[in-house]
Amino acid sequence: ETCKDIVQHEIDAVVRSQDYIGEIGAAHRKEANKLSMQRSALMEASQKAFINGDREEAKKLSEEAKIMGEKMKEANKLARDAIYIHRNKGKEDTFLDLHGLYVQEALYYLNIVLNKFLSNDVEDQLECVTGAGHHSPMGIAKIKKAVTDLCNTLGLRCKLKNEGAFIIYC
Question: How confident is the model over 109-127, as pLDDT tens digits?
Fold first, then answer.
């Protein structure tokens, strides 16, 4: 039930933020969320079968859940890439919009951009839009905190441009 509630909360958050993720990203997220619900149902059925002593059925259902989980991961990767393109296509190299991404997805793209800038001999200024958390579950700006933490870990100076954006000196 807890997994189901969390997934439903995430689905609700995605629905509220459709304009942030574009049509293609929305379709992939919808598919990933559907697969997540199916995986959860299979895992629950597997546990029930195991408790009832049907280990063969439990194993079969567990394997199906793993397959569903892999399909979900792939759908989320497709969503990640589509959302990134939707938010950043045609923008300057020194601008990065992480709206609509999950935290690990946002850090994936931030690391790519930072590695590019850190490998040259110029101090670049990256405007990194994280959002203020208004569309996040419970209004918590998880990406904003993760970006700050990463900058601190890498020893990069960053300053808040506004409630939902940083300037990162790299």
Answer: 999 999 999 888 888 999 9
- 42: number of Cβ within 10 Å: 20
Q: Are strands 157-162 and 165-169 parallel, antiparallel or unpaired?
A: antiparallel
pTM greater than 0.85 (yes/no): no
The per-residue pLDDT for range 71-101, each reduced to its tens digit, is: 999 999 999 999 999 999 999 999 999 998 9
- Calpha distance 100→129 (Å, rounded): 11
Q: Residue 142: which residues within 8 A CB-CB, separation 6 or more?
A: 103, 133, 136
Output the 3-class SS for the chain: CHHHHHHHHHHHHHHHCHHHHHHHHHHHHHHHHHHHHHHHHHHHHHHHHHHCCCHHHHHHHHHHHHHHHHHHHHHHHHHHHHHHHHHHCCCCCCEEECCCCCHHHHHHHHHHHHHHHHCCCCCCEEEEECCCCCCCHHHCCHHHHHHHHHHHHHCCEEEEEECCEEEEEC
CA 107 vs CA 60, 117, 128: distances in Å? 35, 15, 11
